[in-house]
Amino acid sequence: MEQVEDDRHSIRLQVQQKMQDLFKNHRDEQQKMQDLFKNHRDGLLNRVQALITQCFDSRHNKPNSIKLLGEQMPVSWLPKGGKIGRLLYRMTTDLSTHQIHGYCSNKGSTLIIVKDKKGNVFGGCLGVDWTGKGDRWKRDPSAFLFVLKCNAKQCAIKLPFRRESDKSKRSFSHYDRKKFGLIFHKGFEIFREGCCRKDFGSSVWDAVPELVNKTGWKNGEFTPDEVEIYQIIKNVY
């Protein structure tokens, strides 16, 4: 009987030892998993932070590797006494297009430059605020459209707003409503229900026939490759 008890006791000790070993191994594995998770989390956070920093630097510090469309804009075309100021919006870094009015509304005079997938570079300038409010066409006599490249080839043409002598035929420069994105009348539309379209019309903008004759410019839908919006500020001498 004593031998049986000794055997039972020995077995219990062995079982306890194995249980302790299993528990220790489980605890070690758990610690390893926690360490791996922490390292993975820290690495992911570092990558996200680096990406955010890169985007911020790309937008605000203008590294040499990123060329801004605004650098192509002739200064002489800007409103008198004005110069290109702060970059308010850049599609490739700000990403969101649904709230584009939030970047440029109530910023005074603004310049919009677009590059499409075919290499066309064009845009428009307003001397008044985009407000995103109301539901109507508006008229800004100082507004103008422009084309800097047509089918990736240089062509600098400015298209001033056409002032109608007959007040009954007054034309409009832009449509100001947050829901519809940014619209230049008979010019171009950006992100209106997901559709971008250029429709340069001679009934509103001077020099459209010249643009067509010189470059073979074609209207129609386009896919933006880049969109930049700048604030126009007064030159301080």
Mean of pLDDT: 80
The run of helices and strands is: HEHHEEEEEEEEEHEE
Give the strand order, joined by hyphens, for the main sheet: 1-12-2-3-5-6
Number of strands: 12
Question: What does the main sheet amount to?
Answer: 6 strands, antiparallel
Query: Radius of gyration from the CA trace?
Result: 31 Å
Number of helices: 4
* Domains, number: 2
Structural class, please? alpha+beta
* N-C termini distance: 110 Å
What shape does the CA trace take? Answer: rod-shaped
Q: Low-confidence parts lasting 5 or more residues at pLDDT below 50?
A: 56-65
Name the beta content range.
Answer: 25-35%
Fraction of residues in H or I helices: 25-40%
Textual characterization of the structure:
The protein is of the alpha+beta class and 237 residues long. It has two domains: 1-66; 69-234, no CATH class. It has four helices and twelve strands, in the order αβααβββββββββαββ. It has helices at 2-60, 91-94, 100-104, 208-215; strands spanning 82-90, 110-116, 121-126, 137-138, 144-150, 153-160, 174-176, 182-184, 188-192, 195-198, 220-221, 224-234. The strands form two sheets. It has a six-stranded antiparallel sheet with strand order 1-12-2-3-5-6. A six-stranded antiparallel sheet has the order 4-7-8-9-10-11, with no helix packed on it. A hairpin with a 2-residue loop joins strand 9 and strand 10 (195-198). The longest helix is centred in the N-terminal third of the chain and has 59 residues, at 2-60. The relative contact order is 0.15.
